[in-house]
Structures are given as C-alpha cells and as structure tokens.
Amino acid sequence: MASPAEEQAASEEEHPATSELLSVGFNQDYGCFACGTDSGFRIYNCDPFKETFRREFNNGGIGLVEMLFRCNILAIVGGGKNPRYPPNKVMIWDDHQSRCIGELAFRSEVRAVRLRRDRIVVVLEHKIYVYNFADLKLLHQIETIANPKGLCALSPASNSTVLACPGLHRGQVRVELYDQKKTRFIAAHESALACFALTLDGTKLATASSKGTLVRLFSTADGSKLQEFRRGADRAEIYSLAFSPDARWLAVSSDKGTIHVFAIGRPDDASADGSAAASTSPNSNGGNGGNGGYVNGGAQANGPVRNSMSSLALLKGVLPKYFSSEWSLAQYHLPEEAKSIVAFGPQKHTLIIVGADGSFHKVSFEPTAGGECAQLEYKKFMKPDEDESS
Known about the structure:
The chain is mostly beta strands and 390 residues long. It has helices at residues 4-10, 321-324, and strands spanning 21-26, 32-37, 40-45, 50-56, 62-67, 73-78, 89-94, 99-105, 112-116, 119-123, 127-132, 138-143, 153-154, 162-166, 172-177, 182-187, 193-198, 204-209, 214-219, 225-230, 238-243, 249-254, 258-263, 278-282, 326-327, 330-333, 340-344, 350-355, 359-364, 371-372, 374-380. Strands 13-14-15-16-24 form a five-stranded antiparallel beta sheet, with no helix packed on it. The longest helix is centred in the N-terminal third of the chain and has 7 residues, at 4-10.
C-alpha cells in the first residue's frame, strides 16, 4: 500500500481506480463543465469533448466547483465522505499556482457558489452573500426562505448585473437589479421553487416549481409573465433550465429522462393569461453592479417557430391552463435514467447534456420541424479505464 506521500506525489499523474461524481456544473458560456469528485475535480471542454485537466487530492473530496469562464480561477467547496476543505468554506483556487489564494468562511454549509468577473455569490440555506471579486469585500446580504438546493442565478453579461434567488415566501423569486439599484419580487408559483435561470443579460427569468409540470418565463424589468410552457401532465423534478445565448430557446431537464426545447417568443401576447404579482422597492443594501466580461447575448423577441399548442387554446379564457400552455418544440429521450443538466452547445441548434452517471450527450434539434433530437456524440467520462484522448 502506497504511503500518503507517495499517493500525493502521484495524484496529479494517475487516474484513480474509482471516483465518485459529487457535482457537475457548466461555466458561464456553456463551453466547459466542471465535476467535483470524492478525490478532487475535473474540467471538461464541451465541443470538441475533451478533458481539459484534473486535480486529484490525497483523500479529499470536492463537493462544488464553480468556474469563471475559462480562466485559471475557480471557486471550490469540500464535499463527500472526506472533504478536502470544510464544507462551510469557499476556497478560491488558482490553477496556475495549483493552490488556494483566498477563502470565505461561513457558519453553515455552503450550498452553491456563483461567479462573474466582478462578483462572488455564496449561497447558504437561509442567506446569500455577495462579494466584490477583487478584494472579497462584502457588498450585500440577502435573507431567503429555506434553500437547501442552493438555488441562485447570476447574469454573466458585462453590461448587466442581475441576481435571482428565492424570496421569503414559497414560490417567490427575488430579483436584484443592481445597475438600477432596485429589488423586484415575482410570485412565480404557488408551490416551492425547484429551479430557475436567467438569460445572459438578465432580462428574462425562467422558473419551475416542485410540481414540475409548468415552466414560466418572466421579464425581470417589470415582473410580467411572458410565456408559459408545459413540460408534461404529471409531476416531475426539474433538474435544470438553460437559455440559448441568443435567448431564442429554453431547454429543460427533469427526472422523466426527457430533455425539452421550447421556442421563446410568439406573435400573440402571452401575458394575456395574467401577469404574476410583482412589486418594486429600492435596493435595501447598496450593492452596486460593475462590469464583468461577456459578449452580450441580447434577447430576441420572436423565435423562428411556435411551440405546439392544443387546438382548444383559443378558449384559454374558459378552459384550464392545460390547454393553453405551450408544449415543447423538440425533445430528446435519454437512454439512461440519471440526474442530468442541459445547456446549449457552441454550434447552432445543439444541446449538451451531462449526467450524474458520468454520461455526456451532444444532440441537435431541428428549429423548424422540431421533433426528436438527433444524437451527435455520446461519451462515458467517469469510467475507470477512460482515455483522455478519446
């Protein structure tokens, strides 16, 4: 049996025989994804698919990994049965130096971390902290309803600083418009929030509740409901929501094993179903937004096609919402049942799907005809005998 010193010396060079995947998440532009494992972390490029690098620690798990685009700075949090770092600390890792260059400590376990070039956002179960990236100065504290999933979204666009998080009431989303120094509350769902996402510029918010049947689209500027999408008729756990960079499409993954793609925007006024309750108040804490570094992916008002709708939708003022909601344009049925997250690939009309079982899918959807997505690539990246060059 190798000594701890020998294991440490070899950890950067050798693949562990087995490695448990603890978390997976995309970077801000969906070009990469990061995996936390019970022995370190790994970074993968999405297209072409390739492992970029990995860092293995001697008997130390990383539960959360948050990238900052493709730069050498990451935020990591210890996790697993034997955490490398305390789960109540966010470690700022500089991969050029292969060491931590800063840390933020809290009184409870860190549930999530979000980064942009000028901000670090740390999510605890009942509180969110917003820091300036350059000097780690605390800018804003937000109290939330119980948030064990660490739900939080942060716009990465340089010209817009928007943060979305749970409010203090069930189904409520709090939106911080830092550039306008305003706070908006959106009553998105009657049930508890399960997932939400912002467009790159933060102008649109997609939400799903614990029921998982509907996905709603809101304007963050005024809180109005823009569209309502139906994933299905039965309950489901929504795992992820993702906007395309041009905000023309929305992708949804759930425990049903089907990825749905919805078209954003339509000729008729989607808000006719009734706007969600929204209110505006001055920002109670002067956390100013600054400039990050991202090419603005401005929202498009109209998608090229419509989602499927019931022929009875014309009677939406009379019939239940089941008939007036929009159904997905395209779908992809995963061959395996595993928790998965979805994002849009760099190539037009492509999706990247990463599963908790170490599966990678690249698929394409037809923007006009819709229907079943075509699989372009499939990999299993957590196999013990994996080949990095494949």
